[in-house]
Amino acid sequence: MTRFIRQTPCAVLLAVQFLGILLYPFLEDSLQSRQLFALFGLVVLSMVVFALRATPAFTWVAGLLALPAVVLLLIQIATGNENLLIWGSAFESLLYFYGAGAMLLYMLDDEVVTTDELFAIGAVFTLLAWAFAHAYVVLQGLDPTSFSGPGDDVRTWTELLFLSFTTLSSTGLSDIVPTSGHARSVNMVEQVAGLFYIAMVVTRLISLNQRRRI
């Protein structure tokens, strides 16, 4: 197991993120559960930095982006101050965007597809979904009317992550709708990013498969 974790960090990151998708709905009902949510956020951040060690990216850049997010999450856990959420999400969004770009370069770095690079295909997608979801958190913090949906409450993290996944995958199933100009702009950028990424991955896999046949 230790060897598997060391050799396939992208697989571990992907597994942790999928675990988060299942756990998040249970961690939004009370202050204590949201503190656990922040604690789980620390786990995800550490796994991102760990996974980036396998990529050509500069790990110290990831650490530099992760440090303020970690400090803000720790303060939020210790004090219960949820006003820090918007600032922590801003740094987390930057880290996830950086991580997605680094893993993309990792996949394109050679013509041999390793097991970890196969898992990186999914990890890049989830990192992009997390990055845009945190960007939505920042937008909602700046303008609470940025998104509309069922009920009159502010959209939860699970709802914004759901919007991000449905936008990035171009399924369009979300009942959460961006309403402000800035929210719609970011949402359109995510649509383009999702189409570009899926098309690029499919093209690369087809190209590698044809090369193996020649």
Account of the 3D structure:
- It is a single chain.
- The chain has 214 residues and is mostly helical.
- 75% of the residues lie in helices and 2% in strands.
- It has helices at 2-7, 9-23, 31-52, 59-79, 85-108, 115-142, 157-168, 181-213, and strands spanning 147-148, 177-178.
- It has a two-stranded antiparallel sheet.
- Helix 6 (115-142) crosses helix 7 (157-168).
- The longest helix is centred in the C-terminal third of the chain and has 33 residues, at 181-213.
- The radius of gyration is 18 Å and the shape is globular.
Supply the key terms.
214 residues; 8 helices; single chain; 75% helix; two-stranded antiparallel sheet; mainly alpha
The percent range for strand residues is under 5%
H/E element sequence: HHHHHHEHEH
Strand order of the largest sheet: 1-2
Distance between the termini: 36 Å
Which of globular, elongated, flat, extended, rod-shaped describes the shape? globular
Please describe the biggest sheet, giving its number of strands, its sense, and whether it closes into a barrel: 2 strands, antiparallel
What integer value in Å does the Rg equal?
A: 18 Å
Q: Provide a count of the helices.
A: 8
Brief summary of the model shown:
The chain has helices at 2-7, 9-23, 31-52, 59-79, 85-108, 115-142, 157-168, 181-213, and strands spanning 147-148, 177-178. It is mainly alpha-helical and 214 residues long.
